[in-house]
Structure formats: C-alpha cells, structure tokens
Amino acid sequence: MIFWITRMMKMKLMNKAYWERRYIEGSDFWNAKGITTPIKEYLNQLTDKHIRILIPGLGHGYELMYLKEQGFANVVGLDLTDLAARETLEKFPLFPIDEVVLGDFFQHEGQYDLILEHTFFCSLPIALRPKYVAKMKELLAVNGRLVGVLFDCEFDSVDPPFGGSLSEYKKLFCVSDLNIEILEPCYNSIKPRKDREVFIKIVKQQHD
Ligand SMILES: C[S@@+](CC[C@H](N)C(=O)[O-])C[C@H]1O[C@@H](n2cnc3c(N)ncnc32)[C@H](O)[C@@H]1O
C-alpha cells in the first residue's frame, strides 16, 4: 500500500523539472549512449528519406542524430527538456539541435508516417498508458506506424522507467484503427536489455 501511495505521489512530480533533475544528477540509467540495435536495424531498411518522423521523449537524441546522418529530411525530436540533447551537442557539434522541439507529447500536434518508441512509454505514469495509445493514434497518418521497443520486465522502483509485459501491451494496443503487425520478443536487443524487451510495429489503418 505504502509503495503505491509513494508511487502516486512521485508520479505527480514527473514534469520538466523532474526530468532535468534526473539528467543533472546523472540518474539517467536508460541512457544507452548511442542508438540501439533494434532501432538502427529497423531504420536501415527504410528507403524513403522524406517520411515524417517523430521521436517523442527524445532525451540525448541518438536516433535523431542517426536519422539526420542517414539523410532523413523530416525528423522532429520532442521532449519536455533539451538538457540531454544539448549534452549530445557538446560532444557532437553536428547534432541537429534545430530539429528538437520542446513540449509535452500529449499537447503535440502533427501527422507522422513513423513514430519511434525508445524508453518514452516506460517514462510515463502507468495510468497514462491508454492516453499514450490514443495520442499515438492521433499523431499517426493513415498507414503510419509506431515502431520501437518496450520493456518486457518489471523494475523495482518508484521512479521511471516502469516495466510491463507483452500480454499487457497486446490488450493496450488493441484499439480500433490500430493494427498490431509486430509485438514479439526482441531478438537484437543490446546486451543489458537482452530478453527484456519486445519489438513493436503498430500500424494505423484507414477508417472504414
Ligand atoms: C526515460 S527518458 C528516455 C530518453 C530517450 N528516449 C532515451 O532512450 O535515452 C524519457 C524522456 O521523455 C521525456 N518526457 C517525459 N514525459 C514527457 C512528455 N509528456 N512529453 C515529452 N517528453 C517527455 C523526458 O524529459 C525524458 O527525456
């Protein structure tokens, strides 16, 4: 009971200041220090460099940097704070900081062909998960897809990242106009996340 009360209290504090504090304290344990294999290998298959891509909860922005290096023209990185992205800019002067938009995912407007998920879902309060799915559906263009990885394990902490399971995700993404094309154990996770991730590809369908 106390665990849940503490968790609820913490959740209210997960605003811009909360995330900036985590970056400043160096408690950003999710930082993979580079683009991870599942995302990189997925992006390497894409041929159309003009698709509209959104990276919510951008953090250090390694995916954004990679996409720009590969010549993708329409990429937006979205985050409540650009603190982590500015850290990346210090190390990599060619980091595309101009493509970073400051704002709340739930207030963001736009239409995207591809939305990349990488440790953003797990950063949100668990109660917001259905809202996350609804917002993704709104932001995806018809035939647009949400692609990335989700944790398939639990974490013993009152702070994010928060875990989950494949069966939970199956129910969560089972909404009208969204088709779960891939939701399965991830075979090419980075070593520390091996056997602890699922790969997802959720496609928005045409409304009948
Ligand atoms: C766990 S970190 C992941 C960062 C990055 N995706 C990575 O893999 O390193 C979550 C990020 O989401 C951002 N964030 C949390 N809630 C957000 C929201 N409602 N809108 C936009 N960004 C948010 C935080 O500021 C933080 O940078």
UniProtKB/TrEMBL annotation:
Gene3D superfamilies: Vaccinia Virus protein VP39. CDD domains: AdoMet_MTases. Keywords: Methyltransferase, Phosphoprotein, S-adenosyl-L-methionine, Transferase. Pfam families: TPMT (PF05724). InterPro entries: SAM-dependent_MTases_sf, TPMT. Transmembrane segments: none annotated. SUPFAM superfamilies: S-adenosyl-L-methionine-dependent methyltransferases. The keyword Transferase applies. GO terms for molecular function: S-adenosylmethionine-dependent methyltransferase activity. One of its GO terms (biological process) is methylation. It comes from the Bacteria. This is SAM-dependent methyltransferase. It comes from Myroides albus. The lineage of its organism: Bacteria, Pseudomonadati, Bacteroidota, Flavobacteriia, Flavobacteriales.
